[in-house]
């Protein structure tokens, strides 16, 4: 792991951008990439530094030539496609420019207050795939959908995944329209069509694909980490009543594809190098991964020391000036498969990944009650409502609710870094 | 229906491109759009006419101004995004130019022999969705996967679909690499990883989306047909052993996403106007579609008089000079849901469709033995091999096999039109 560390991770490093020093999300050790607009609405590549955003196209002449075109584009797809060495050179250059006060005068005109900017999707998403690596989530949900058979026999062999909808992935901040759809009550003869009554969130990590692979050419597990450019926070909005009625035999469809929220900053694997930790040991009796998914280096540093949390505020809570409540909190290491394993599995049949593809991990729940990553789990399928400080209660999400996923990577000896928010508010269904 | 017919459908219409007259696929009544390259490899929009391809960018100045930019692009996405009225004006213009011999000298330089051209994907596919509307297929396959429960209770209410992989959709002619993957024999303790032993095809129609809808705004059933720009032939290659092991609970994934073949010509809904027929009556006792899927006009002309067939040749058959054998043949009207219904359902929750999205109908099998649209069905799950004229037999596809889907739209009083081939050959798995 230390082989991936360089001077950009030095905990003593500070920036002449004052707000970066001690910033809980975007100190100089982070330097996440994103796409923003300001004023004219043109899409520009940027880097978050403290409370500011650095416009990369404006300073492209000061950056390594290998990255100059990529940082001047209106999406990050070309940047994601760069060889890892070029990405690292870009990071070192940005770190040097933002730490050396000699650059202040030349660079300051390229800095914007983040509050003045709109953050957009970082890349054109060719395909979006959602996995199911949270074993506690799989068990909790499996128990609700299939009480006798919560964890299916393939779960510990196959990193289960399915294709999601690329067109409806939206950056943090865009509201979510409550979807209409078919639902059938267990005791009803026929389904009805109308607004979902069981709107839910799912706490996930998003994985941005860097370099791709040609169709027909798998990615070896030992090389899979090199195909990942960074992580974000992802909310896989779900309509549980639609899902229960539609999902057999071909999986979730309209229950999920009405909206997916992603945090707009791409926290790079380079920034996350100090936070790599060993993948948790498989419980006794679990099978070893098959060879195409089994890599000692991935076992020893395939997980991340990231703490995630989910916050909720209702319209009434906001009207009463009450702060959001935390619904759950837990480590991102509650994943049965690593991000490298899901990449290697995805490409194991020759399926081609492309730069800018987005992979969701699936809901990350922990073993404890306070670590459940969806309302379906927290309310035990709607049976146990959650009390809000406004006197309301929630089984599922109501119109006006605002849901936020936040996360911090932290580890002793490293400066903690954040992901920025992944947040959205629920709009009522169309009548 | 007759409201949609105009002079471009006149059976008496002929072209000064001699090979178009009597051409089984591309008479002047068809005029399908596609993207081709020739020589320099540049992607150009074209129209098939007889044995030739008309380069649209070269003659853009002679076409309606509303379509001039769209036909000069390197994909058809902009053409698909045009209002239907503009597409129809373009069609009338092309029909007039190719039928009036006064244009011959000016247009001839823009014509290429199709044999000299390479046909490419017609559009950048934002999302690819596969449906399951072939009720006989659903019953046949359901019986193999779930003998006690072949057709699930949601089937006659919900046009079942799932998201497929956009990145691995390939035009006719590109070979298919046999995928590797996990499979588990019913009597084995553990799965193994290796080349699929049950490689299969699926006979489908592909539906190209024209104008899209904004996220959060459903498409009404009465307007759904206007969002479809045309049809193609689609082969949803499937690895049945991978599928059986992976598909629960989230549906097919690696069993399908290694390759999908689409015929490169987009046969427009305008060209298909004479072949619209009533949707077959639902059997007695089946529920009426819910209102959001129920439209009298769609019932009376939501299906198409298209006859589809599947042809197979093995490497040995070709070496021995034997022609391909027909595996199945049947009408495309064996669909429980119309293409308008799948579009309306897809967008019913607000999911946004975009121009160039591709929808597969799902395997179209008929009730008769000769109408089964996959080897899984034809060989009854591998139990009943199919004899080839070379003395070989097939349960599933072997390396070197070449599979072709072909189709013709025909109806009394109309000139039949075709789709061009949807064909590919199987390459051995990577060792």
TrEMBL record, chains A, B:
List residues of the Fumarylacetoacetase N-terminal domain: 29-122
Which Gene3D superfamilies does the record match to this protein? Answer: Fumarylacetoacetase, N-terminal domain, Fumarylacetoacetase-like, C-terminal domain
Q: Per UniProt, which keywords does this protein have?
A: Calcium, Hydrolase, Magnesium, Metal-binding, Phenylalanine catabolism, Tyrosine catabolism
Q: Which cofactor(s) does the record list?
A: Mg(2+); Ca(2+)
Disordered as annotated region, ranges: 168-193
Q: Does the keyword Signal apply?
A: no
The residues that the entry says bind Mg(2+) are: 236, 256, 260
Binding positions (substrate): 132, 146, 243, 247, 363
What's the Enzyme Commission number for this chain? Answer: 3.7.1.2
Query: In the UniProt entry, which residues are flagged as the active site?
Result: 137 (proton acceptor)
InterPro entries, per database record: Fumarylacetoacetase, Fumarylacetoacetase-like_C, Fumarylacetoacetase_C_sf, Fumarylacetoacetase_N, Fumarylacetoacetase_N_sf
One Pfam family, please name it.
FAA_hydrolase
Q: What GO molecular function terms would the record report? A: fumarylacetoacetase activity; metal ion binding
> Which sequence ranges form a coiled-coil region, renumbered to this chain?
none
- GO terms, biological process: homogentisate catabolic process; L-phenylalanine catabolic process; L-tyrosine catabolic process
Q: What is this protein called?
A: fumarylacetoacetase
* Species annotation: Sphingobium quisquiliarum P25
């Amino acid at each position: 792991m230390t082989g991936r560390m360089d001077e950009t991770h030095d905990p003593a490093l500070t920036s002449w951008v004052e707000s970066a020093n001690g910033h809980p999300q975007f100190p100089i050790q982070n330097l996440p990439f994103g796409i923003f607009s300001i004023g004219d609405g043109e899409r520009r590549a940027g880097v978050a530094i403290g409370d500011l955003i650095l416009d990369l196209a404006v300073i492209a002449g000061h950056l390594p030539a290998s990255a100059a075109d990529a940082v001047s584009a209106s999406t990050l797809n070309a940047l994601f496609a760069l060889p890892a060495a070029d990405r690292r050179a870009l990071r070192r250059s940005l770190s040097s420019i933002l730490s050396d006060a000699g650059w202040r005068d030349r660079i300051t005109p390229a800095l914007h207050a983040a509050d003045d900017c709109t953050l957009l999707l970082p890349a054109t998403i060719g395909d979006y795939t959602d996995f199911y690596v949270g074993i506690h989530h799989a068990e909790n949900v499996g128990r609700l959908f299939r009480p006798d058979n919560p964890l299916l026999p393939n779960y510990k062999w196959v990193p289960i995944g399915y294709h999601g909808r690329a067109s409806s992935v939206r950056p943090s901040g865009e509201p979510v329209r409550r979807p209409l759809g078919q639902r059938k009550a267990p005791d009803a003869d026929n389904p009805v069509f109308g607004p979902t009554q069981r709107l839910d969130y799912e706490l996930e990590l998003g994985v941005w694909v860097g370099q791709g692979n040609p169709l027909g050419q798998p990615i070896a597990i030992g090389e899979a980490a090199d195909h990942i450019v960074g992580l974000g926070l992802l909310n896989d909005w779900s309509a549980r009543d639609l899902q229960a009625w539609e999902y057999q035999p071909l999986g979730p469809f309209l229950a999920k594809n009405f909206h997916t929220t992603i945090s707009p900053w791409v926290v790079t694997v380079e920034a996350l190098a100090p936070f790599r930790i060993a993948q948790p040991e498989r419980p006794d009796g679990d099978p070893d991964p098959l060879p195409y998914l089994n890599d000692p280096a991935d076992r020893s540093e395939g997980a991340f020391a990231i703490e995630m949390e989910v916050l909720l505020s209702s319209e009434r809570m906001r009207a009463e000036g009450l702060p959001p409540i935390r619904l759950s909190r837990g480590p991102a290491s509650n994943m049965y498969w690593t991000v490298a394993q899901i990449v290697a599995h995805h490409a194991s049949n020759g399926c081609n990944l492309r730069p800018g593809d987005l992979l969701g991990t699936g809901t990350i729940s922990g073993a404890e009650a306070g670590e459940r990553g969806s309302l379906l789990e927290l309310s035990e399928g709607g049976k146990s409502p959650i009390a809000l400080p406004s006197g309301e209660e929630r089984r599922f999400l109501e119109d006006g609710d605002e849901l936020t996923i936040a996360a911090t990577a932290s580890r002793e000896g490293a400066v903690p870094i954040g992901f920025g928010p992944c947040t959205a508010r629920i709009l009522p269904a169309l009548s």
